[in-house]
């Protein structure tokens, strides 16, 4: 490329110095866009296969998008001549802030991960009757699962959804304690007010 640059007239060489980085930046942007299309299709397929909620798939897509586009931006800046030292300083500063935010939001991130595990392992589903046992034979929190969102699982403890009581349990709690799940006719052994019937 340098040999071609030296053979061109000055005006053409100047244009070549602008044109090559511009083409590289366009290629980087196009590559990031294609990577995001692939990630979108992959996340859609996983969501369909494991029955993940749409809001969780959207959250994963945003995280992947932030990482892909940030990487593309840093690479494009480097191709346009921004100093590597400046980029490294910016990256380490961003990583430090990210690490602090990660530890500050650890409980929320833990619940997000546990939500994913609940859907993948199929430990329970909406409509199931479950009990979270404290220890041994002591009765625990129980009810019918009415909602599983990225942070909480809501159990209908008694009554119905308009006139009853519900429990909102962090999803990580289901991986710290023993979970009892009723199947088939065993559900009828639970008191009617525990099933959330009308």
Automatic annotation (TrEMBL):
Gene3D superfamilies: 1.10.287.1260, 2.30.30.60. This is Small-conductance mechanosensitive channel. The chain crosses the membrane at residues 18-38, 59-77, 97-120. It comes from Roseateles puraquae. One of its GO terms (molecular function) is mechanosensitive monoatomic ion channel activity. Keywords: Cell inner membrane, Cell membrane, Ion channel, Ion transport, Membrane, Transmembrane, Transmembrane helix, Transport. It is a multi-pass membrane protein. The keyword Amino-acid biosynthesis does not apply.
